[in-house]
Amino acid sequence: MILPIVAYGAPILRTVAKDINPDYPGLAKLIEDMWETMYASNGVGLAAPQINRDIRLFVVDSAQIFENMDSDDDDRKHPDAPGIKQVFINAHIKSLDGEEWAYNEGCLSIPKIREDVYRAAEVTLEYTDENFVPQTKTFNGITARVILHEYDHIEGKLFIDYLKPLKKRMLKGKLDDISKGKVRVDYKMTFPR
C-alpha cells in the first residue's frame, strides 16, 4: 500500500525516533509498504518519520542510482557501486570518516527544493536487518550519503539544517508554501494542519 509522505512542517519530522523490537505490530507489512511508497515517489530512501511513524526504521536503494547513471560516468569514482537495497532498523552511527564532500540533495518531505550538502565520505553503522539480525557495516560514496540523509530523519534532522543561514532565509517562502500544502507533487502527501 502506498502511504502518504509527511510534508515539511510536521512535528514528526523533528522527533528523535525510538528503537523497536521484533514484535513491533505489522512490521513486515510496514516495510513492504515503505518500499512501495518510496518507489511510487521516485525516492532512493525513505525513513519511518516520513510516513508518520516515530520509529528507527529506514529503507535505502542506492542500486537504482547506479542503474540510472550515464554509461560514461566512471565507476571507479564510486567505490560503493553497484549500491545496495537494504532495510535498517534501530540504526546508530558508530563513526563518520573520510573527507566531507558536497552533493545536491533533495527530500520527498521537502519537494522541489534541492541544495548542496556536505557529508562525511564514510559511515559505520550498528543496526539490525529486517530479521533483527545485528549488523555492523561501513558504507561509503553515494550509498553512505543516502544512509546519512535517512539516518538524519530518525534523529529529527533535515537536509536543510546543513544550509547556511542566508540560504535558509532565501528558502523560507518555499518552505512555508510546502508546510501550507501549496505545492504540487506526483505522489501522495500529507500536510501539517
TrEMBL record:
Its cofactor is Fe(2+). Fe cation binds at residues 107, 149, 153. The keyword Protein biosynthesis applies. The keyword Chloroplast does not apply. Keywords: Hydrolase, Iron, Metal-binding, Protein biosynthesis. The active site is at 150. SUPFAM superfamilies: Peptide deformylase. It catalyses: N-terminal N-formyl-L-methionyl-[peptide] + H2O = N-terminal L-methionyl-[peptide] + formate. One of its GO terms (biological process) is translation. Its EC number is 3.5.1.88. Binds 1 Fe(2+) ion. It comes from the Bacteria. Belongs to the polypeptide deformylase family. Removes the formyl group from the N-terminal Met of newly synthesized proteins. Requires at least a dipeptide for an efficient rate of reaction. N-terminal L-methionine is a prerequisite for activity but the enzyme has broad specificity at other positions. This is Peptide deformylase. The gene is def.
